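JOB MANIFEST
job_type = single_chain_structure
chain_count = 1
residues = 215
[input]
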Amino acid sequence: MGQHVDDGLKGSPVRLWKLIERRALTPAGPEREAIDRRIWDLFGEEWAVMFTDLSGFSRQVAAFGIIHFLQIIHEQKKLFLPYVEERDGILVKVEADSFLILFKRARAALECAVEMQRASVRANEGRAPEEKILLCVGIGYGAMLRIGDDDVFGAEVNAASKLGEDTAGAGEILVTEGARAAAGVLKDLTYEPLDAVVPGAGACWRVHWTVGVPR
């Protein structure tokens, strides 16, 4: 029979918050720095992080009601999540109309975002305006704290969230400098610098993509 392992010995939220509590009680200096190193040693990893949002979604809910809201949520899951699975993405959170997704490689995250946008274009053909799924995407890449499959924290996480949920418009893919550099050159894609830079991003870019050949 397997032995029970205390959550305080796992790489779990319990262990993280125990260390954070200890840090809060420790004055600035070498001892606090040692706690920070322990946290990064336990939870620090490099990932590409994607935040998605649906343009105009709140207005649609106000105008067409909660059942319309549930239908669009259901449809976007059916439409987009197969592409996430194809690129080995990890769906961490679904909050209302937003996804938080991790990819081990920035290139995979960007390729997935393009396929999702192309799928959105195809799905919206012939639909009434209130039925259209208008996707906004933000992508970051770099070191972050990953807490199992429960959550992720870091400057690139915050930047990708700001780009995907607050900055990107319908059909846009916005990326941080870290994501652009890690993804490199992809066929049929170009980058345009954004005037606005969100905190933690260094620089931000708009990805120009083409609809491409239907799959």
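[summary]
The domain at 44-208 is CATH 3.30.70.1230 (Alpha-Beta Plaits).
The mean pLDDT is 89.
exit_status = 0
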